[in-house]
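Input structure tokens:
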């Protein structure tokens, strides 16, 4: 009997995971920080951006303004810091790294030129003087190019982008089913490698992924076996843990702007935002770029042709935020999902944005 479309989809996805193991750095970090016997878990660090109704970041709040809960149970805040880059860059112990990733794997070949043009426009704002050091990464399906040293010189970054060679094979967004799974595989591998590397570096990281996002590969025609659900769930646990440990806030910026505003994918990702508590509830859409961005406390920005402004909005998360540390309780079982909620009590209408959950280990 031949494979149905839904069966083939699941098998191809899991085969791709088998071909791309978790990077050695991530495995080493996990082994070092997850001993067999531990008196208490490591502290959980939350980077929190507070905004008013108009979206403007709110500064000047105190620890008493915040309340944190895990699985809807209040937990005390053990340490607190307010970070305001414009006024206290030298007083803060917090280091914030900004990484701009230009995704040419999931962008139509015809749109890559416009994407690069908008990114260069952002880099040249304020005469090329960026507010904080930026690392530039160009992702293609034939390799990854990295600006080796973070810099505030937007003109230098623009020149690097201008000279970079982007070699694309024909796996564009219209390359069909197998092209979609290949793009998914390349994207996931890159995110795993970046999070593993950043976990070895101190401070907070803002990873701005400039991309329409990789394929969701989920829907009524997709059915996974129990074994496939377990494999995908473990992939989600490993990636979520690596992003949390690295203190990565992931934001997605759609470079297609209004061209994507009427497509199904711009809102369908919201169906997968709820944290996955067990393999039986796992879907491939739970690994979507927009889902991971929202769950790390980042922004999902689309439906706007002013891509340079969208990038600025994502990067602005580094300018004013709060660092809250809590001591979580011991997990009851492996891969226990815990939801996170942070609320602000000072004024009405304030929204606290941070990661929405994590996976705890006993």
């Amino acid at each position: 009997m031949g494979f149905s479309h839904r069966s083939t989809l699941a098998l191809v996805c899991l085969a791709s995971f088998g071909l791309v193991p978790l990077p050695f750095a991530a495995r080493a970090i996990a082994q070092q920080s997850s001993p067999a016997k531990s008196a208490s878990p490591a502290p959980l660090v939350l980077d929190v951006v507070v905004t008013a109704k108009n979206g403007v970041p709110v500064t000047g709040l105190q620890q008493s303004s915040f309340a944190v809960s895990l699985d809807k149970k209040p937990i005390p805040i053990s340490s607190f810091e307010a970070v305001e880059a414009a006024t206290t860059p030298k007083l803060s112990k917090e280091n914030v790294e900004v990484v701009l990733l230009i995704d040419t794997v999931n962008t139509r070949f015809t749109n890559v030129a416009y994407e690069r043009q908008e990114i260069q426009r952002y880099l040249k704002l304020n005469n090329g003087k960026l507010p904080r050091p930026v690392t530039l990464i160009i992702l293609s399906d034939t390799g990854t190019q990295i600006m080796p040293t973070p810099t505030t010189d937007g003109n230098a970054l623009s020149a690097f982008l201008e000279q970079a060679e982007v070699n694309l094979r024909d796996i564009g967004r219209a390359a069909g089913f197998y092209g979609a799974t290949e793009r998914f595989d390349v994207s996931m591998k890159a995110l795993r490698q970046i999070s593993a590397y950043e976990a070895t570096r101190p401070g907070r990281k803002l990873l701005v992924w400039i991309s329409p996002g990789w394929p969701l590969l989920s829907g009524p025609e997709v059915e996974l076996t129990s074994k496939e659900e377990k494999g995908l769930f473990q992939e989600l646990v490993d990636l979520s843990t690596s992003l949390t440990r690295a203190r990565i806030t992931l934001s997605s910026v759609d470079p297609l702007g209004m061209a994507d505003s009427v497509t199904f994918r711009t809102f369908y990702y919201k169906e997968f935002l709820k944290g996955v508590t067990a393999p039986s509830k796992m879907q491939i859409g739970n690994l979507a770029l927009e889902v991971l961005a929202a769950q790390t406390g980042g922004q999902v920005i689309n439906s706007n042709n002013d891509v340079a402004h969208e990038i600025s909005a994502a990067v602005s998360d580094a300018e004013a935020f709060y660092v809250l540390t809590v001591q979580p309780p011991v997990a009851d079982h492996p891969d226990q999902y815990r939801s996170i909620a942070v609320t602000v009590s000072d004024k009405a209408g304030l929204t606290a944005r941070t990661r929405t959950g994590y996976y705890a280990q006993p």
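Residues 176-198 form the longest helix (23 residues). Residues 43-86+319-362 form a domain with the Immunoglobulin-like fold (CATH 2.60.40).
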